[in-house]
Design a protein that fits this description.
Elements lengths: L10 H6 L2 H24 L12 H9 L2 H9 L9 H10 L1 H12 L7 H8 L2 H14 L8 H10 L20 H20 L5 H30 L2 H5 L3 H4 L9 H12 L8
Helix pairs in contact: 2-4, 6-9, 7-8, 8-11, 9-10
Length: about 270
């Protein structure tokens, strides 16, 4: 594909990025444009769409975005190289990270409904942290590709970054080497991409360190949100099945949950449970 003008490479970029790297970056850009951005433009122009008074209402609207993230992942070649169960585990284990980062990419302009919704829906300390997360993330909005690469790196993380007393969610994936190889591809691509936009190795390292701190901040918030969801049983039971699958309980049968996720999202064409 022809590179969009936003990511045409400078002379420094050409020194750091191979022609293959540039092709992958362009494909990542258009894969996201043709799925998540296309959905935003036609279905959900801003988020939250109104002022909510309950955290589960916000989560329910996030659920509308999940199929579009998965449509994006389906266009990534490495996604098809791992097993169905591993795909489902990765989606569930990294769900919070994916939603936080994807929110900023899809909705770079802060909705006027966001801060009132957070204040109405969560305890003050969590509402404040969620607002601060948005403020921290906004420094990355101007770059058209950076967060899209990070979204892939986080997805291809076989570790569980959530706090559940569930055996399966802590289980090692079926093919951790394939997952690691996929993640490593995008970690190295990210390193070269950032190197192409920085003037020195020191600046590159500082940038990557700040990015890791930012991801750790998101992980900490995810744990708080998990606790919020799991302690509100009545509201939890009313969520859509696909969202309930993101917060598994001891009573959930793993195969039933995975099949439900596949049926509701239809992320694997011609692949059944």
């Amino acid at each position: 594909m022809e590179p969009p003008s936003l990511i045409r490479m400078s002379a420094n970029s050409i020194q750091c990025l191979s022609s293959s790297d540039q092709t992958i970056l362009v494909n990542i850009f258009y894969a996201y444009e043709n799925t998540c951005i296309a959905a935003r433009n036609t279905q959900l122009p801003y988020f939250p769409s109104k002022v909510f008074t309950n955290g589960f209402e916000i989560i329910a609207e996030i659920g509308l975005i999940v199929p579009h993230i998965l449509a994006y992942l389906k266009r990534i070649p490495e996604f098809g190289s791992i097993s169905l169960h591993d795909r489902m585990r990765l989606i569930r284990n990294q769900f919070g990270h994916l939603m936080h980062i994807n929110e900023l990419i899809m909705f770079p302009v802060t909705s006027k409904n966001l801060l009132p919704s957070l204040a109405n829906s969560f305890e003050p300390h969590l509402a404040c942290r969620l607002a601060k997360r948005r403020q921290i993330m906004e420094r990355y909005i101007a770059d058209p590709i950076l967060l899209r690469i990070i979204l892939l790196i986080i997805f291809f993380s076989s570790n569980n970054s959530r706090q559940f007393n569930i055996i399966d969610i802590d289980a090692i994936c079926d093919d951790t080497l394939a997952i690691f190889a996929a993640q490593n591809t995008y970690v190295e691509l990210l390193w070269r991409y950032v190197a192409s936009h920085t003037s020195s190795e020191n600046d590159l390292i500082k940038f990557m360190n700040r990015m890791l701190l930012f991801i750790n901040h998101i992980q900490s918030m995810n744990m708080d949100i998990d606790q919020y969801v799991m302690k509100s049983k009545n509201d939890f039971d009313q969520m859509a099945p696909i969202l309930q699958a993101m917060w598994p309980t001891n009573s959930n049968d793993e195969d039933t949950v995975l099949c439900g996720m596949t049926e509701n999202i239809n992320i694997i064409e011609n692949d059944g449970c």
